[in-house]
Design goal:
Shape of chain B: globular
Strand content of chain B: under 5%
Radius of gyration of chain B: 16 Å
Number of domains of chain B: 1
Number of helices of chain B: 4
Largest sheet of chain B: none
Oligomer: heterodimer
Number of helices of chain A: 7
Distance between the termini of chain A: 44 Å
Largest interface: A-B, 52 and 59 residues
CATH class of chain B: Mainly Alpha
CATH superfamily of chain B: Ferritin, core subunit, four-helix bundle
Strand content of chain A: under 5%
Distance between the termini of chain B: 35 Å
Number of domains of chain A: 1
Radius of gyration of chain A: 17 Å
Order of helices and strands of chain B: HHEHH
Number of strands of chain B: 1
Order of helices and strands of chain A: EHHHHHHH
Structural class of chain A: mainly alpha
Structural class of chain B: mainly alpha
Number of strands of chain A: 1
């Protein structure tokens, strides 16, 4: 009996690949003013607003990493990689939501004497927010939000 | 009811079913692969592999039921799969488990990309999160860094 190779990685739509690619961000941004290259990628105003809202949610998480790190320098060093990943997620979310504008930090200073536990709460809440938003989106936007939500679930587990 | 736009190339039940069938193939692979993982792990780590295998069996069964209910194609499991590398140690086993979870994540991100039904996206995003949590544990056990990924299931850039 011959063994079957592991399934190949699935093919993604051009828009999904663009959403995942820093090189494609400008193309995605251009998509808001020209006809979509993929007819599946028609975005309702409600979806666009919700995606812009998720940018703000992620901005708060990036600020939360900074706040927790300021409160506990040892934690800052420990979670530097996680913070960098949260920042990379924000970059791609912004690129996928050309209408979103950068907003000032809205993260509160870590509450109580346990910045790690506070940070973990922020990560978990952000993951849940993106996961919920992913269900309301479709195509590349759903894929991007779902992937980021999963990445944050992984971060939550790492902070446990 | 499908909730995406209509027209050429629109997401519909056929695009969704095709992605679900690919996800099912990945789940079949994971169920088989965790048998290899468990066999190579020590007693202390084996329960984690058993729990992961059970989780993938549950998802597999959900997808089979969903596709069968639609009278769509349901891919069968293969008798065996070619391992991507030899599994000769516990570290190899953990690395294989991470590969399995990464394959499943890619398939479920694809489901999110191709789904027309909200309920299917709910299933996909739940599976995806659970998969990445397990993957983090296996990457750590395999000594890989970083153990977390910002974009599980999406292609590397």
């Amino acid at each position: 009996m011959s063994a079957t190779p592991f399934p190949p990685l699935p093919a993604f739509s051009r828009r999904t690949l663009l959403a995942a690619s820093a090189a494609g961000l400008a193309v995605l941004a251009a998509g808001c003013s020209s006809p979509p290259a993929d007819p599946r990628e028609t975005v309702t105003s409600e979806q666009a607003d919700e995606l812009a809202g998720q940018v703000a949610v992620q901005e708060s998480l990036v600020a939360a990493y900074a706040s927790a790190g300021a409160a506990d320098p040892a934690l800052a060093a420990e979670v530097a990689e996680l913070a960098a990943q949260a920042d990379a997620q924000l970059t791609r979310l912004r690129a996928a939501s050309p209408g979103a504008t950068a907003s000032p930090s809205s993260a509160a200073a870590p509450a109580g004497a346990d910045p790690r536990a506070w940070l973990r709460e922020q990560v978990a809440a952000t993951a849940t927010s993106h996961a919920t938003a992913s269900v309301d989106q479709s195509g590349a936007r759903a894929a991007l939000l779902g992937s980021i939500a999963a990445g944050l679930r992984g971060q939550d587990g790492r902070l446990a | 009811m499908a909730d995406d736009t209509s027209g050429p190339g629109a997401l519909d039940e056929s695009t969704e079913n095709a992605a679900l069938d690919d996800a099912l193939a990945a789940e079949h692979t994971a169920v088989w692969g965790y048998g290899v993982v468990g066999a190579a792990l020590g007693a202390e780590a084996r329960p984690a592999a058993a729990a992961a295998e059970a989780a993938h069996r549950d998802v597999r069964d959900q997808v089979i039921a969903l596709l069968a209910g639609r009278k769509a194609d349901v891919i069968d499991a293969e008798g065996a799969y070619a391992l991507p590398f030899p599994v000769l140690s516990e570290v190899d086993a953990a690395a294989l488990a991470a590969v399995l979870e990464d394959g499943v994540a890619a398939a479920w991100v694809r489901v999110l990309d191709q789904s027309a039904e909200r309920s299917t996206r709910e299933l996909a995003v739940g599976v995806l999160g659970a998969t990445e949590v397990r993957a983090v544990g296996w990457r750590a056990a395999a000594g890989q860094t970083p153990v977390t990924r910002p974009f599980p299931g999406l292609p590397e850039t």
